[in-house]
C-alpha cells in the first residue's frame, strides 16, 4: 500500500486549474481523509507550454508529450479533463494498460465508450471514476454509490441539461417562443451557437446512460435511449399544461423492473407541486426512487468549472482511499454483474398529455372518447377552450397509464377522425397526481 | 489492520431490525466496498429476550446486559439505535473507553452531548459517526463531509422537521387552521400526542446544531439557537404571504461569515419559485450554499425506519473503511479546529415580512413609512386590503435587509403609532427575490 500518491493531469483549462487550486488549498484535509502521507501533482499535459495560466503549479511539470504522463512510474492516478473523445480515449486506454487509476469528467467519452473502458479498468485492476461527468456540482453519483449503497434504485427522473431547462423556464415564466428563448440563452452563453446536442436531447441522453450504469449497473447504449428533443415544443403546449397544473421539463428518465430497463429523454409534464417543477433556469436535479429510502432529490448547478473541479477532487479522494484499502475496481466488478434487457414499447407505461384541435360540432366528444374506449384507455382530465374566430375547439387531456405502443395507436386513431383537425402535440406525464383545484376539471360539452 | 469487523448493536426496534436486514442482504457489496473479509453482528442488546422479532438474527446473540456488548473484545464497532439520552450516553462513553468505534442515529444525544462525545472519541482515537441522526433518508451529512469535502459551506437553509412541514403544507394548500392541521397530523401519526418538541422547533434546533457542526465545524449549544416555533402561525399570515408570492416554512438556518456563526429555527417566508417552497408534506430538504459548488439541495424523507437504517449502514461502511485505512478520527480532528463565535443580533441581517392592522385614515401611510425611514430601513413590497366592516386596513410589507435588532425597534415603533391597531405578525424572509408578477406590487393609497 502506497503512502505517497502521484497524480498526472491531462488538460489545464478552467476545470484543470480549479483542480490544482483545490488540491493545493485542501492538502491537509485530503491527507487526513485518505490517510495518505502525500498527494502530489507530478505532471500536467498542456497543448502550449508558453501560454500564461492562473494558478501556482510549477511550470516545470508542464509537458506537451502525453507519454510523459501516461508512462511515468511515479504517477498512480491520471485525471482527464482535456475533453473530446478519440484522443482522450487513447490516453485513458494507455494509462490503464500502464495500471494507472483514472478520474475523468468526460461525459461524451463515458457515454460512448464507458462500457469498454470500465471493462479494461476491471481487467487491469484499476479504478475508473467519473462523478464529474454527470451534472457537475450535484453529488449524485457519489450518493448513488455511497449514501444509497445499501438500497436498490428503481427509477431516476432528471433535469440534466442546463441549456434546455433555461429555455423552458423562460418559455414558461415569460411566455417566450422557442426561438426567442434560444436566442436569449445564446446571448447569455447558456447555449452554444450550434445548440443541437442540447435541444435534441443528446447531451441529456449521454448523462442518462451514465446514470443508468451507476444506479442500475445497466449497460445501455446511446442509440438505445428513446430520444425526443424540445425543438417542437410550443408556448401553447406549455400554457395549456399550466391550465391543467403541469410544468413542462426536458426529462431524462431511467427505470427498471422485472421486464427490463428503460432510458428516455423527452419533454415531460410534471405537476407544479412536484419538486422538479421548481428547478428553474440553468439548474439541474435528479429525483431518485429507492426501495428503502423512498424518494430523494439532488439539486445543484449542472455545470461550471468550480463545481466540476469539486466533483473531480471528490473522485480523486475516493480513488486514493480505494488504492490504500486495496478495494480498487470493486465498483467495476459490481457493474459487470447484470445482463441488461431493454423494455419493449408495450411494456413502457406512462400517463400522457394529448392536445388536439377538434371541430366544435355535435358528437365530437363522443367520437373522441370512443377512440380511448376502443383502445381500453381512460383519461383522468380533460379541458376544452373555443378557438377565436373558427369553428374549432382546443382540447387537451391527460390519460391514465397506458403503454407507449397504445399511445401511438390512439394518436393515429384520433388523427384519422373527421371531427379532429390536427393532433397538435403529446407529452409524457410523470411525478404523480396534480394537487387538484376542482375548477380545473372542466368537461367538454 | 483488521480484516474481520465485529459489530455490536444496542437496540433492536424497527431501525435495528432494518440494519440487520440490510447488513445481511448486502454482505457481498459491503465486503467489496470496504475490502473487509467479514462483517459480522456479534451481540445485540435487547430489553426483553423473549419478545418475538422479525428478522433472521441468531437469538443466541441477544443479551440484556450492556457490558456484553461494550466489553466484548471481538466487537470493533458499536451501533446505537436504542434512543433516549442518559443511558445511551453512558453506553457510548463506555464503548469509547474500550476503544470501540460508534455509529449512532440518536439526534437528541448528539445535539445535547455531541461535543463531549466527539472529544472523547478523539482522545480514544475512535470514530463516532451520526449521519442517520439528521434527516434520516437524505444523504446530507455524507454529502457535506464527502462530496463537498473540498468546498467551504457558508449557509444551510433546511426544512428538517416532517411534522411541522406536514402541518404548514395543509395550512397552505387546504387553508386549515393551526389546530385543524395539528389534529390531522396526529390522526395520521405524523405528530405525537404531545407535539411540543416539533411545533416549538426544538427537534429542528437539535438537527441544526448537528448540521452546523458537520458543515462549519462549529460548536453551537442548543440554547444558543435563536428559536421560534410555529404555534403562533395563522392561516391569515400564510394567505397574505401567498399574495406576495411567498410560502411559509419552518426553517432551520445556519450561516457563517467573518462575524461568526448564526443558527436559528423559525417560520420563514420563501419565494414560491424557490425549490424549498415545493418541499411538501412530511418531506425534508436542506439547501446548501458552498463557495465552489454554488447552491445545491438535498431532498428526501425526514424519518422512517428503513431510510434511517440505510443511513446507519452507510456510516458503518465509512467506519469500516476508516478502520482499515487507519484514518479513524480524522473528521473529529477537523471538527475540533475552530473556536466558534456566535453572531450578535445587530450583525444578523435578513429581510422581514411584517403584517399589521392600521386605521384607514388620511396620513396613516405617511406615519407607517416614517418609522422605516427613521430606522433607515426601506421596504421592497407593500400590499393593503380593507378589512370587512371596520375602519381598519390590513397592511403587509417586506423590508429590505435589516438587522435583527433593527427589526425589534421597527416593530416596537410601529406598535406605538396611533394609526396602527396591532402588529399582527412578522416573519423572516429567505431564498432570494420573488419572480415578480407586477400586479402584486400594490401601493397603499
From TrEMBL, chains A, B:
Keyword Metal-binding included in the entry's annotation: yes
Enzyme Commission number(s) of this protein: 1.1.1.3
Keyword annotations: Amino-acid biosynthesis, Metal-binding, Methionine biosynthesis, NAD, NADP, Oxidoreductase, Sodium, Threonine biosynthesis
Residue positions of the active site: 207
GO molecular function, one term: homoserine dehydrogenase activity
Residues binding NADP(+), per UniProt: 10-17
Segment forming the signal sequence: none
SUPFAM superfamilies cross-referenced by the UniProt entry: ACT-like, Glyceraldehyde-3-phosphate dehydrogenase-like, C-terminal domain, NAD(P)-binding Rossmann-fold domains
Pathway entry: Amino-acid biosynthesis; L-threonine biosynthesis; L-threonine from L-aspartate: step 3/5; Amino-acid biosynthesis; L-methionine biosynthesis via de novo pathway; L-homoserine from L-aspartate: step 3/3
Domain ACT: 353-428
UniProt cofactor(s): a metal cation
Biological process according to GO: methionine biosynthetic process; threonine biosynthetic process
Binding site for L-homoserine: 192
InterPro entries: ACT-like_dom_sf (IPR045865), ACT_dom (IPR002912), Asp/hSer_DH_NAD-bd (IPR005106), HDH (IPR016204), HDH_cat (IPR001342), HDH_CS (IPR019811), NAD(P)-bd_dom_sf (IPR036291)
Catalytic activity: L-homoserine + NADP(+) = L-aspartate 4-semialdehyde + NADPH + H(+)
Key word NADP present: yes
Gene3D superfamilies: 3.30.70.260, Dihydrodipicolinate Reductase, domain 2, NAD(P)-binding Rossmann-like Domain
Binding-site positions, NADPH: 107
Family: Belongs to the homoserine dehydrogenase family.
Protein name, entry field: Homoserine dehydrogenase
Species name: Natribacillus halophilus
